[in-house]
C-alpha cells in the first residue's frame, strides 16, 4: 500500500513539474555582454568571433557593432577605393589618381 501512495505522489510531482515548467526562453534584457537576443528562438546567443576584414595591405580597420549589437570589423574608408584611386578628405570619397592635380603618395605607390 505504501508503494502505491509513493508512486502516486511521484507521478503527481512529475506532472506538476511538466506543466509548471514551460520551454526555457530569455528576454532581450537577459543577454550578457557578448551575446545577442535571437528572436526566432527567444534565446540569448553568443556573438560570433570577429574575423579580420579582408583589407588591402597597409590599410587599417575599425570595430563597430552590427544590428544585433555584436562587434564586426570593417576596413577603414580610405581602404575601400579601387586600384588607381585614392580617398579624398575633401570629398570624403574615392577620386581618380589620374585626375588629381596633386596626387597623394598612395597614387605613386600604385604605379
TrEMBL record:
Residues 1-20 form the signal peptide. Keywords: Signal. PROSITE patterns: PROKAR_LIPOPROTEIN. This is Uncharacterized protein. The lineage of its organism: Bacteria, Deltaproteobacteria, Bradymonadales, Bradymonadaceae, Persicimonas.
